[in-house]
Structure to design on (571 residues):
């Protein structure tokens, strides 16, 4: 009975919602992708090269090399979050898009699943692009040491679904656009700074490491760091399992909360 | 008799302690335009939300083309075309894309519905706006596009929730004209409205809803004849003068008097109404006119509709 109650009612309708988002995005492809195209260059230049000159790491690597897996985790996270936090809220509340879609054979669960799949798609496009930039700049910056780095693309599906689900779960309880300030201040920003993307986690005090272990982004960064450097470790599988559990939890939560919001 | 396409019996909807719909029963037959008339808060939109599977039924039975809405929501929704009260067109898509993407939600491919979309755009006079942004359309055009969108799946029933609320008179008449055209083509319609004129113009049969209940059901003109009578006398007189005039009316069941603000309505006065109107001699103070749906509502609920 509980299993039935938890199982989302998903059909091909989810794919049709994904198609809707694709069509809507491609209509404004230039505005949508201009920022995506330029951002990695800006941050590699500003943080990796300019700031990096003042940073000396105990591991002996260049800061820009340390930064690479962090960027591969951060930008896709932002892509998924913007799409499924603000974007979904606009479609839910301002545009009545969910209401119009659920009047068709498409269910609420289809809509949420389609939205999450689209957030995941954007995060994958974003992540693949950063990897491509890193490969192109590799002769000069040596950001990628191992072909295992290519595995970051399929692995990226998991954090894509996870961050999309967390965002849409928040969108379903937000009552105003301004509420997203809480989400970004309390959830996304701390993850951005303390997710292990900008400085090594191992040098921090023990209690910070314990708290940090629960931050999903840290596990994404750890996995990518192993893939990019080629230093594969068993702990990466634990990180992967952690992400899988969190993803399943937040996906079901997002569906449940949005059902409560839309069906009454 | 044609079978019922939408059948509700003993339908109840509670929101916590609030009873939004309080045991309503009706049946909509194939090819008819069925109206639900009532003020804001009567339970019209809640009823529609239950039919379109957007709101679970608290109690009672609700079937569309024989299918239970609770058991087969996807199948039921595939048979419906819904025009919601507030336009929820997709502003991220162009006018024609709105129809194509909507058809896709029904599993219909763009090529399959190409001709249907062409016809709908032409019928609703939007063919020259096919590549426009939705936000650039006027209110009337948006409404027409919303109706066109509700037709892309060739629905068994078109459900319209206050289709002309907020439109200017010209836009409203254009929408009415197009709805009459659809009716002539045999499209079954369920329409809610708080405009009496709209209900009288379009509906073959209607129910009057108030505080979650159905007060009366019938054909618009029958209801007017039965409840309001052929003629209504409207009086706008000082109380003393009015009371003196009212004493001259015969005291039997057929006559009823309703007071709304400074207006007095006399229903079923017959010959006495004609005499009274002639005696006052000023149509601004005593106006004799044919009965209408508004009178029906006033008599059934004892108060004005637009309160």
């Amino acid at each position: 009975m509980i299993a039935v109650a938890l199982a989302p009612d998903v059909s091909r309708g989810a794919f049709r919602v994904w198609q809707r988002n694709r069509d809507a995005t491609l209509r404004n492809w230039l505005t949508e992708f201009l920022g995506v195209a330029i951002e990695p260059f800006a941050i590699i230049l500003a943080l990796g090269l300019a700031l990096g000159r003042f940073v000396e790491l105990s591991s002996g690597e260049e800061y820009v090399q340390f930064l690479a897996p962090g960027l591969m985790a951060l930008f896709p996270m932002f892509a998924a979050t913007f799409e499924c936090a603000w974007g979904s809220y606009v479609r839910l509340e301002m545009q009545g898009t969910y209401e119009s879609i659920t009047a068709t054979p498409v269910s609420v669960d289809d809509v949420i699943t389609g939205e999450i799949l689209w957030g995941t798609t954007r995060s994958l496009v974003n992540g693949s692009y950063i990897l491509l930039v890193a490969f192109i700049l590799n002769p000069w910056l040596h950001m990628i040491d191992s072909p295992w780095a290519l595995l970051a693309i399929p692995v990226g599906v998991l954090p894509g679904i996870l961050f999309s689900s967390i965002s849409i779960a928040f969108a379903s309880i937000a009552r105003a656009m301004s509420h997203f300030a809480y989400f970004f201040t309390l959830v996304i920003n701390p993850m951005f700074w303390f997710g292990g993307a900008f400085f090594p986690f191992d040098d921090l005090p023990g209690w910070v490491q314990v708290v940090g272990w629960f931050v999903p982004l840290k596990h994404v960064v750890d996995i990518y760091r192993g893939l990019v450097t080629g230093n594969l470790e068993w702990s990466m599988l634990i990180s992967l399992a952690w992400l899988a559990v969190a993803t399943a939890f937040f996906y079901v939560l997002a569906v449940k909360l949005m059902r409560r919001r839309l069906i009454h | 008799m044609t079978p019922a396409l939408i059948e509700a019996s003993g339908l109840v909807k509670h929101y916590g302690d609030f009873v939004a719909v309080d045991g309503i029963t009706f049946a909509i037959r194939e090819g008819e335009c069925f109206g639900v008339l009532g003020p804001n808060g009567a339970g019209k939109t809640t009823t529609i939300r239950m039919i379109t599977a957007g709101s679970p039924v608290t109690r009672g039975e609700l079937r569309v083309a024989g299918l239970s809405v609770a058991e087969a929501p996807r199948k039921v929704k595939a048979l419906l075309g819904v025009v919601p009260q507030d336009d929820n067109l997709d502003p991220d898509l162009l006018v024609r894309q709105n129809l194509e993407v909507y058809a896709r939600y029904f599993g219909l491919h763009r090529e399959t519905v190409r001709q249907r979309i062409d016809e709908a755009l032409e019928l609703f006079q939007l063919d020259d706006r096919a590549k426009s942004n939705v936000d650039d359309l006027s209110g009337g055009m948006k409404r027409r596009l919303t109706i066109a969108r509700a037709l892309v799946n060739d629905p068994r029933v078109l459900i319209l929730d206050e289709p002309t609320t907020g439109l200017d008179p010209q836009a409203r008449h254009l929408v009415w004209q197009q709805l009459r055209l659809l009716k002539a083509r045999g499209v079954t319609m369920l329409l809610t409205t708080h405009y009496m004129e709209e209900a009288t113009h379009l509906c073959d049969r209607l129910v009057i809803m108030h505080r979650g209940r159905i007060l009366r059901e019938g054909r618009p003109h029958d209801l007017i004849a039965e409840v309001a009578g052929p003629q209504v006398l409207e009086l706008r007189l000082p109380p003393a003068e009015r009371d003196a005039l009212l004493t001259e009316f015969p005291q039997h069941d057929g006559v009823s008097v309703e007071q709304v603000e400074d207006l007095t309505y006399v229903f079923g006065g017959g010959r006495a109404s004609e005499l009274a109107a002639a005696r006052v001699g000023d149509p601004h103070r005593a106006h004799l006119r044919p009965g209408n749906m508004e009178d029906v509502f006033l008599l059934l609920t004892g108060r004005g509709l637009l309160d």
Observations:
- The radius of gyration of chain A is 19 Å.
- Chain A has one domain: 2-262.
- DSSP finds twelve helices and no strands in chain A.
- Residues 2-262 of chain A form one domain.
